[in-house]
Design goal:
Elements: E1 5-7, E2 14-17, H1 33-44, E3 52-61, E4 70-78, E5 83-92, E6 95-106, H2 143-146, E7 147-155, E8 158-168, H3 180-188, H4 191-194, E9 203-207, E10 209-214, E11 222-230, E12 236-245, E13 248-261
Antiparallel strand pairs: 1-2, 2-4, 3-6, 3-10, 4-5, 5-6, 7-8, 8-11, 9-13, 10-13, 11-12, 12-13
Helix pairs in contact: 1-3
């Protein structure tokens, strides 16, 4: 097992899920990070255009994603000279399980001459200064073994805001190198996990979506989440992550949360 998904040798739109995709809520269901990254994989390969990059991806999680073969489709639904919209879908034999909309934007050439004072700044202690924390799962293989977590502040068993670096141990699709977008989508879906405020054994805090906006393309293998969770007694919550690489800020990630007793 050397990747989260194995491409089907006979169908380029079909991907076989491995156990590395397993999430924390059910041994038979995937963590939403890998399939979100798989959507990023197919979005970037949909009618690629020189000088363009994805600025935002909004993923809708339509239900539990089984550890099973997935069909991935993407198409440009709103073409444009400078901005275009791409729609992508992941489906099982029973129907769609994830959908995504992505805005792809033309990059400035030459780069814009912006005032220094308006440029985003700020860094976080790097992954080499962070600590490894165990993931709260009884499963021997899963998403938690396919990635590396390193906490600067917080921990899985310490409720509250956290700063956590995340790196993929394996490619999203076998035989490929994860793109910056794939790495970011895979990591950003952990915002509610690293900043959890509720007891993992007593409550569910499952996200129904994932939105990631990137003002800069990430560099390097590590993505940092400066994450916080906002719960409400109504059973609806929000996880918000400021996203960084080792050079500084790259964007934002948000997740709407369904909260309930187990």
């Amino acid at each position: 097992m050397d990747a989260f998904y194995l491409p089907d040798p006979e169908d380029p739109n079909r991907f076989h899920s491995t156990e590395l995709t397993r999430g924390p809520w059910s041994p038979d269901a995937q963590h939403a990070g890998p399939p979100s990254a798989l959507l990023g994989h197919v979005i970037e390969r949909c009618s690629p255009r020189e000088g363009f990059r994805v600025g935002r991806v909004a993923v809708e999680i339509l239900g539990p994603v089984p550890i099973a073969p997935l069909m991935a489709e993407a198409r440009v639904t709103r073409p444009g000279r400078s901005v275009e919209l791409i729609e992508a879908t992941l489906s099982t034999e029973q129907g769609p399980v994830l959908k995504a909309n992505a805005w792809r934007l033309r990059q400035a050439d030459p780069e814009l001459d912006l005032p220094v004072e308006v440029m985003p700044t700020g860094t976080r202690p790097g992954p080499e200064e962070a600590r490894v924390e165990p993931f709260p799962s009884a499963q021997a293989i899963g998403f938690h073994t396919g990635i590396e977590y390193r906490f600067v502040t917080g921990a899985f068993d310490a409720p509250g805001a956290a700063v956590c670096w995340i790196r993929l141990r394996y490619p999203i699709v076998a035989g490929t190198t994860p793109s910056p977008l794939e790495r970011t989508l895979a990591a950003a879906d952990s915002g509610n996990g690293v900043s959890s405020v509720l007891d993992w054994d007593r409550y569910l805090f499952i996200n129904t979506d994932l939105s990631v906006t990137l003002h800069r393309e990430p560099v390097g293998e590590w993505v940092c989440l400066d994450a916080v969770t906002y719960p409400d007694r109504s059973g609806v919550g929000l996880a918000e992550s400021r996203l960084f690489d080792e050079k500084g800020p790259i964007g934002r990630g948000t997740q709407t949360l369904f909260l309930a007793p187990r």
